[in-house]
Every structure is written in structure tokens, then in C-alpha cells.
Amino acid sequence: GFGAIALTAKGSLLGMPPSTLAEDVLRTASGSDYDTFLNVLLSNVTAPNVTEGQLQRTELQAHTEREVRRFETRRFAHFQGAAPLMRLIFAIAGGTGASISGQASILKADLVRRMRLQDTAVVLLMIAVYLVTLLVTANVAHHQAVNSSRVKYYADPRHHTAVVDSHEHEAFLEAFAQPPKNAFLHVAGLARASEDMPGTLNHGGDSYRVDFTFALDLSPWVVRELSPAASAGSPRAPASPPLEDGVVAEDLDSLKRFLLHDANDLATVELVKEVSWPCWEELAINIKHQIRQCDYEGVIGIDRTRRESVRIYKNKQWANFIHSRTLKVVLALSVVGWVLYVPYLWFKCSTLRVRCLYQVSIGIADYWQLIGDRLSAHGFEPFDAGAVGHRPPLAVLRGSHVAGEFFDEQEDRF
Length: 414
Hints:
Elements: H1 2-14, H2 18-29, H3 34-45, H4 53-80, H5 84-93, H6 108-144, E1 153-155, E2 163-164, H7 169-176, E3 184-192, E4 201-203, E5 206-217, E6 222-224, E7 243-244, E8 247-248, H8 249-261, E9 268-276, H9 280-293, E10 299-304, E11 307-314, H10 317-322, H11 325-333, H12 337-348, E12 351-360, H13 364-371, E13 375-376, E14 379-380, E15 394-395, H14 400-409
Helix pairs in contact: 1-2, 1-3, 1-4, 2-3, 5-6, 6-11
């Protein structure tokens, strides 16, 4: 191509024989650099046999550039005629080419296009590597979610350790429907304080300081409610539903069907353990009255544990994988993963609610005999180390943090 241009340009303006022109072209054929070719071609223009001076050299140079542009235009048109996929491959893998000089400005647009395509390819490659890394991590987490144990169901491991290896409802209830272990009678005493006082609690626009707070353990007396008649005297008794072994009969039937036929790995069971204590409000009034008689003038709040929930999961690979922390981290790193994860959980996760009824078996009068003489303006005085007789387990909760949580939850019980 360059040889043809040289013969045409030089022969038309200098009248040199074709053999002489061929020798000049052959001397540059070994080099493919376009600028080198032009230098050799133009060097002949300045040869001693040129007699028409600077004007002739200028005309020759202009004519040569026109021939080069026509050649490059034909080559570019041939390149554009290739298949789109081949053009894309050549643009990405072909590099940026030779440097652009003023004599080949026609390639400038093509070079810019190549550079943009190559930059885009690099960005896409980095994104692909990032996503592949996340997919590999998720795949490893999926394989780690396999559990070869015989356990079929397990409670939320953050709060409970109960498991069961059977689909029978008797074994299920035996494992998960035990009486609540965190049943307490909560008592808190708070006094008004100035806002700038450290360690104060804000409630209803007023500031309070914590004088005392304690919780008496009721779990030793919490038993399963076997029938509605067992809660005679309770305000809930007339509306108490039919029970089977402490479980609402309607919910028990649903639980049996769930254990035997449910095929959704993400389905869960929520055992709601409701605790009743007939006439416990009278005990609360007696506690307040006893503390008032000890010259305490602050606000006294009293409440008890009313319910406890236990969430139970299936021990399936897919369920363990979906709830794993590794997957949640991968989804967070993927930026858009949560957009798919949250709707999927909303669509697939279902919860069967099963109500289990319990009651505190100790009477109000009997419990008052255990605690009545221990109440004071400072809260609850612990039992002496050498005291004889049955006494309730005691958990003393101190500090404004615990009292603050209690205060927020029981704002309408003071």
C-alpha cells in the first residue's frame, strides 16, 4: 500500500522512473512504521535533482498527504466492513496503535473509540472478578450449611439450646414447650430529679433518678395450664380456649399438620408462652403500700413477665444457608443483594403461631409471706445467709440502664 502511494506521488510530480521509485520503496519495506515511510518519501523530494524549489516541495508534500489519507480511508472502510464482533475484539485486544501525527488524523476518532472500549472492558472485568468472588464465598457458605446431625428442629441459638430429632408433636412440645425460665416480678422505684443531673431518665417530659430496682424470680412456680378450669378465679378464665396438655387445641392441630406435611424449608414455629397469675394485681398493691409505709415518696412501678416467645427453625441446608451471617455479609457487599433477599424472605418465610398457656401456681397470700417483711424504702432486703425455710430466688438488677428499659416498657403502669 505504501509502495503504491510512493510510486503515484513521486512519479506524478518528479517524473522519476518506476525502477528508481521501487528501489526507494524496497529500502523501506522492511519497516512498517508509517512516519518512517513518509520521511523516506519526503527525503526524495529534497534530492539534488529537484530544481523547482520550495514551491514544488510543498506541492509534493500536499499531494503525498492526500494519497495517504485516501489509503487510510480505504483501510478504515475495510475495517468497518468487518463483523461487529470482530471489530469489537480488534478494538479491545489490538492496543492503541501507533502515535497519531498530523499526517494521519483520520485515525484519531478510531483511536478514541478503542481507548473507551478498552477502559470499559477493564471495568467490566473488575466487576466480574468481584462478583465471582462473592459467588464463590456464597457457595462455600452453602456447603458449610450442611448439618449431618439427626436434629430436625432447633430453637433460636441466641436465646435457647433446645433441639429435637423427631417429627412427633409430643417430642416437639417436650423439647420446646417447657415452662418459661425467665418469669419475674419486676419492681422499680424512681424519684423526680433535675434535668442536668447525671444518670437521670427522661419520661413524659420529666426527669427521674433510679432509687432501686429488683426482680423476684417466679419460674419455680410456673407450671403448665392443663385445662381452662385450672385457672378459676382469673379474669381470663371465661375466655380461655380449649387446651390439650397446656396447648390451645386449635393450634395443636395446626402444629401436627406442620410437622408431618410442611415442605417449606424456611417455615418456622413460634411458641408463645403466656403466663397467668390470678389476682396478682392485689400483690402489686400490697407491695406499693408496704414501700410507702417505709416513707418512700417516689414513683413505684410493678409488673411481671406475661409471655415468652421461642422461635423454632428447621434444620435444613437451605434454611441454615439463608439465615447464615456469611450470606448476609455477601449480600451487603454485593450492594444490590438485599433488594432480592428481603422480598424473598417476605415471600417464602412463614410462621406458625402456637399458644401455650402457663400459670404461677403459688397463691398471692403465700407469696406475700415470703417477701412482705423484706420490702423497704431501699427496695428489697436480701435474705440472711442463715435463714431457714423456703425463699424465692432473687435477681437484683442495679443501674439506670436496666431501670430505664423497664420504665420505657411500663410507662402506663405507674
